[in-house]
Amino acid sequence: MKKSIMLAMVLMTAFASYAQNKPASWINNVKLSGYGIVQYQSSSKVNDKSNSFNLRLARVSLDGRILDDFYWKAQIQFNGNTTDLGNSPRVVDLFAEWQKYGYFKIKAGQFKRPFSFENPMHPVDQGFMSYSQITSSIAGFNDRAGAHASNGRDIGVQLQGDFLPNANGRNLLHYQVGVFNGQGINVKDVDQRKDIIGGVWVMPVAGMRIGAFGWTGSYARKRTVDTDHGKVTEILSLPQRRYAFSAEYVTNDWTFRSEYAHSTGLAFKTRYQKPENATDFELSKNGDKAQGVYALVIAPIIKKKMHAKARYDMYQPSGDASKQKTFYEVGLDYEFCRNLKLSGEYAFVNDRSLTKHNYNMVDVELAFRF
Predict the structure, then answer these.
(1) Per residue in 73-123, pLDDT tens?
(2) What is the share, in percent, of the chain residues with pLDDT greater than 70?
(3) What is the 3-class SS of the chain, one letter each residue?
(4) Cα 242 off chain centre by
(5) pTM of the predicted protein model
């Protein structure tokens, strides 16, 4: 796997150099870019204390245009190891999008699911030490259904666009809808059923978005068992129904954002991170409902340079307060320039699934991009 990733990196770099030095008429604007996030995090959780430096993310991407109307992108995440599907080097993005018309674009390949405002945000720009719990658990990062870590992505086809321009030419309405395998990144469909995910939002004033999202589909596993009649293939498909409501207002370097998400559907007990997990049919005891909400504010101290921030982040994995987990976060960040950012946070955590509910976290991150 490591050799494959290194080969892909070499090919991406060589292709970018060739395209920039000897551009063809059918391909242009090829760009090699990437980013990394170095992290220090400590936690006082009882029986699970931690105090460690970490490579949170390291990614390299190549993107460009073909025949002017097509945008394409390939992105690889290469931090981690090769024995754990949650952390191993892997392709995260590989897609092409026809963008001739702003009101009707078609994207195909592997990319972000069109669910929630936060899911498609760049990790450096998202604002906090991690995505919210609902984004992680209900939008497909570390999905509650038991799928392997997929960073909110899947394989499929999507339509999207913006229309209804006002007098100033600013579009007031956005839509997006896609059909996906439902199994996460780099995995084929298992139950031959597809996920349909979509959203729509209005933009009544500059910087403001108010949206709603829906998701219907399934997550499945397959195994082979021995019977009196020979080997038989079994498939267990768990229906998933989800929705979310979102609101955001970004103005004059201030950011306000809040989202609520709800999920209905059973989940597997083990997460698919190793090959043996893919055949484990045991179900989670959390039941068939989950929900959560977050609200945040990012305020400028020095405009476009230094910010104070706070976030309330609550998630109920069982649909009620019995296992509710809540983060109360405050922090600061400083942007040396657009490509270099230092941030720090303190979080008080209340986790009702633990014997000792409360613990503290400190997180410091240095993010850079090129």
Answers:
(1) 999 998 865 556 566 688 999 999 999 999 999 999 999 999 999 999 999
(2) 90
(3) CHHHHHHHHHHHHHHHHHHHHCCCCCEEEEEEEEEEEEEEEEECCCCCCEEEEEEEEEEEEEEEEECCCEEEEEEEECCCCCCCCCCCCEEEEEEEEEEEECCEEEEEEEEECCCCCCCCCCCCCCCCCCCCHHHHHHCCCCCCCCCCCCCCEEEEEEEEEEEEECCCCCEEEEEEEEEECCCCCCCCCCCCCCEEEEEEEECCCCCEEEEEEEEEEEEEEEEEEEECCEEEEEEEEEEEEEEEEEEEEEECCEEEEEEEEEEECCCECCCCCCHHHHHCCCECCCCCEEEEEEEEEEEEEECCCEEEEEEEEEEECCCCHHHCEEEEEEEEEEEEECCEEEEEEEEEEEECCCCCCEEEEEEEEEEEEC
(4) 16
(5) 0.91
Tokens of 5: 């990733």
- Between CA 274 and CA 195 the distance in angstroms is 24
Q: What's the confidence (pLDDT) of residue 231?
A: 87
b (16+ CB within 10 A) / e for 52-88: eeeebbbbbbbbbbbeeebbbbbbbbbebeeeebbeb
- Alpha-carbon radius of gyration of the chain: 21
Give me 249's structure tokens. 């207002």
Query: Look-up: residue for tokens 């191993």?
Result: 88
Name the least confident of 7-11, 51-55, 243-247. Answer: 7-11
How far is residue 310's CA from residue 330's CA, in Å, rounded to a whole number? 4
- Residue of 142, 279, 155, 150 lying closest to 222 (CA atoms): 279
Model confidence at 158: pLDDT above 70: yes
Q: What is the tens place of the pLDDT at every residue in 242-262?
A: 999 999 999 999 999 999 999
Spatial contact of 346 and 330, defined as CB atoms under 8 Å apart: yes
Range of the domain at 144: 2-369
- Does pLDDT of 269 surpass 80? yes
**Pairwise pLDDT comparison (253 vs 277), residue with the higher score:** 253
Q: Across-strand partners of 58? A: 36
The total of structural domains in the chain comes to 1
Q: What is the CATH number of the domain that holds 85?
A: 2.40.160.10
Average pLDDT, integer, range 340-359:
97
